[in-house]
């Protein structure tokens, strides 16, 4: 064996051994503290092995990537939606678009079960599920003229499965975008620092878009340096604005006003040329995202704090205070985007295939970006679990579970075996610049506390409040980049649907159709978003429990389409790469949906909760205030139940139709033909290495 080959074999063997040792240390330790370095080590080794070997196998044996094949960005270059773009800019856009609240919030909430279940699912689910889904769907869309997921389902599965996919994907998409919008609004309301910084990214993005296209074409490094510098200045400026008594009022808005601003921004992001706003803004946001996560990793390496949360808590039986439900299936639903996300498939079949200049880069962007998002989820898990468990539960547990008064809350939490006291929480809130940290549910505040504690210990112990508000702003920026890309993708999907009825409406180059479809999409999610901000009892708040289930069902739909395409293109022997995660998702999402529908537990089952509330209302057992709210809450439960049943039904229709079509292909029976476009040689001469 040549010495170079031997060195490579020994190196990767060492990586595999180190990764196995780190995973063993995480999984097998009981009753002893586990150092956070083991988490970082395990993640880096697993991702390195997955990218080097598994993604290479998928690229070379299954998908047969072709660098000489013209992509839709080259063939349909219209200067607005289809634009050949530098691979690093595409990576930045794709990562920024897919990396929303899931990898930050999901692991933080799932820590209720302990650190072990969530960590293992993040690593295993990403390498064999999420990364594969994003990669395969991206290549499928590239080879089908950049078509959306719903349209590919209609083309490949036929009218039954295709119609179910189109309706399901569009409905789920509207809900997901509305939920993302509400999370952004809640993070930015009455926060001039977050609002001013996020607002500043818009003109900065326009400037960088013009710089790379009109002023200094192709000078990506120059544009990046200018953009990142301005972005850092905007973050610092946001802190100055927040402390200026007069100027801060210019950026201090309530939730309904911010909702209208986000609706207007979503419309602009959907209709303006992609190179002018969406791609450069997402690209620059990626530097803040990856920079912050890298800084968090450095802080962990410097401090290497011990994990304080146990591997498994008593709440795996479904009695958890943060959300109801047992370890299976709800840890998988809660983690969501950190392991596999259906929303990613919409980006992989939406904006990204219309920007990619070289098909060979699909592995780097599709598999690699999801791998980076999974690493973000690992960082979030660490930030949540290095907190004292008592503090973690005090921040995340609703007042209705632990008590409205601080003394009641700490007594309840301490009785679970996680001691905490009122003075400890008061001191922490004061250090973070907050009035109180009790019952700050949703995951974002506790994640910000964990990040701020690590940053302050590593880089500046007297700046806890600064780091806390930076983390809150970072989370808002993280999520908004998913909302704008999601809106544009939803516009593509709607145009595909309308094009089946009236062909001219499906043309992305016909601007009246672009404006019309964008307005419909924004009106759809904008309505739910605005209603959620003015009615805290109803609107989009009632749809939040559906977020994880809908997202995972959307992933199942994407894997149905991918599996069908692999079988049709003669790769049936390799279809297991998508069929196995598809089977797992069908089991998990169906189990979760069934429990949300029919569980007798009031904190889990929608119907049980609605019946209980209705009975109490009829018997006069509710206070006047509770009685006034009850009808809206009952309506919300029935709405949740209806949507859950619809989504579950659609996913089973897709699974059955996928099985039918694959059987027809293998048995030589009539089936819808492959919609793959003919191969056209690429004529691009730009090698993208001018800098």
From TrEMBL:
Region (Disordered): 670-691
GO biological process terms on file: cellular response to starvation
Boundaries of every CstA N-terminal domain copy: 35-592
Keyword check for Nuclease: no
Keyword line: Cell membrane, Membrane, Transmembrane, Transmembrane helix, Transport
Stretch forming the signal peptide: none
Cellular-component GO terms for this entry: plasma membrane
Keyword Transmembrane helix assigned: yes
Topological relation to the membrane, as annotated: Multi-pass membrane protein
Transmembrane segments: 38-64, 85-106, 118-142, 163-187, 193-211, 223-241, 257-278, 290-307, 327-347, 367-387, 466-490, 510-531, 543-567, 573-594
Compartments, record wording: Cell membrane
Source domain of life: Bacteria
Family affiliation: Belongs to the peptide transporter carbon starvation (CstA) (TC 2.A.114) family.
Official protein name in the record: Carbon starvation protein CstA
Species lineage: Bacteria, Pseudomonadati, Pseudomonadota, Gammaproteobacteria, Methylococcales
